Amino acid sequence: MKDIVYFDLETQKTADEVGGWDPASKMKMKMSIGVTFSTKTNQYHIYTEDQVEDMIQQLMRASVVVGFNHVNFDYQVLAGYSLLDFKQIPSFDMLVEVEKILGHRLKLDSIAEATLGYNKTADGLDAIRWWREGKIYEIAEYCAFDVKITKEVFEYALSYKELFYLDKFKKRRCMKTDWKV
Prior knowledge:
Elements: E1 4-11, H1 15-18, H2 23-27, E2 31-38, E3 43-48, H3 52-61, E4 64-67, H4 70-78, E5 91-93, H5 94-102, H6 108-116, H7 124-132, H8 136-160, E6 162-166, E7 172-176
Parallel strand pairs: 1-4, 4-5
Antiparallel strand pairs: 1-2, 2-3, 6-7
């Protein structure tokens, strides 16, 4: 059975605090919470920083890891914990694919609102603030919901061969997708 693992993580620090958005700086952001959903087990799993190696092992075992900006962000954060070349993990990054279709980047929230009819519950800066306040449950809940949205958006694209998004004028637009895993 194919194991599609949907994945997202939140960080402890902002880009400003670690010196920017370059790969070396992203490694210094440190993971606060990581969440996966496995189609093989049909379960979410929440990982804390001290369980990051277990999460990396799950990602390595996946048939494919699906995320939104996980190749250029989340994997670079994880590179601060492992010598693994994360490019070796079979991955499908929806942000990369959307950019190929449209020629520009979109926020997951723009796609979720237009396609699914609901929004994310917060953003990454909220998660960092919660980390500082010791609100781990809130981070886990937010990150798990992001994984759920990622999963539902991806499944919609596979089923209907299209996604919707809100353009910069908040007009609902359609993009054709021919994604396969």
